[in-house]
From TrEMBL:
Residues annotated as domain HTH luxR-type: 113-171
UniProt-recorded name of the protein: Fis family transcriptional regulator
Molecular-function GO term, any one: sigma factor activity
Coiled-coil features, chain-numbered ranges: 5-32
SUPFAM superfamilies in the record: Sigma3 and sigma4 domains of RNA polymerase sigma factors
Any GO BP: DNA-templated transcription initiation
EC number from the UniProt entry: 2.7.7.6
Enzyme type, top EC level: transferase
Keywords, sorted A to Z: Coiled coil, Nucleotidyltransferase, Transferase
Keyword Nucleotidyltransferase applies: yes
């Protein structure tokens, strides 16, 4: 590790010398290529200083509080294997076997979806089947989050009404 630090310090010293050569010249004497080189070398100096600082102190330069300096309460994770095992059974998701949708159910689904506009269908499917959040959908469709929420509310309302109508027709 020390060898690496020494190499970076040598490179930093060399880069600073090259940068000083450009600074000694006046701006009028510098060609466009020289100005470009000066900017590149200044960037190199900055990057090398950052790396040397990182290697010397062992953490990111400028970080106010490294992970190793956090309070004991922030670093402590309370976990008892017996408790975790007991909780794992309680919160385990039950995997249902995938079942095939019958033709009758497909017709019902199509009928319920038929009352939706294309945009409402898009929002409904993105949210329910793909699990996207309203914010993610809003970004994808280039609309506001509130608009996505309204589309979802309308879709649910329309489908509920359609299902209720169907139930009343079936009861008659």
């Amino acid at each position: 590790m020390q060898d690496l630090l020494i190499e970076y310090k040598r490179a930093l010293k060399d880069a600073r010398k090259r940068y000083e050569r450009f600074r000694e010249k006046e701006d009028k004497q510098l060609s466009d290529q020289d100005k470009h080189d000066q900017k590149m070398i200044a960037s190199m100096v900055s990057d090398l200083e950052y790396v040397v600082d990182w290697l010397q102190i062992g953490r990111e330069p400028g970080a106010r509080r490294g992970l190793d300096r956090r309070s004991v309460y922030q670093r402590t994770i309370l976990a008892n294997s017996e408790v975790l095992e007991a909780l794992s059974h309680e919160y385990t998701l039950i995997q249902e076997k995938e079942r095939e949708v019958s033709e009758r159910d497909k017709k019902r689904i199509d009928e319920a979806l038929s009352v939706l506009t294309d945009r409402e269908k898009d929002v409904f499917f993105m949210h329910t089947t793909q699990g996207l959040s309203f914010s993610e959908i809003a970004i994808m469709l280039d609309v506001k989050k509130g608009t996505v929420q309204k589309h979802m509310e309308r879709a649910r309302t329309k489908m509920s009404k359609k299902v209720q109508e169907r139930l009343f027709k079936a009861a008659e």
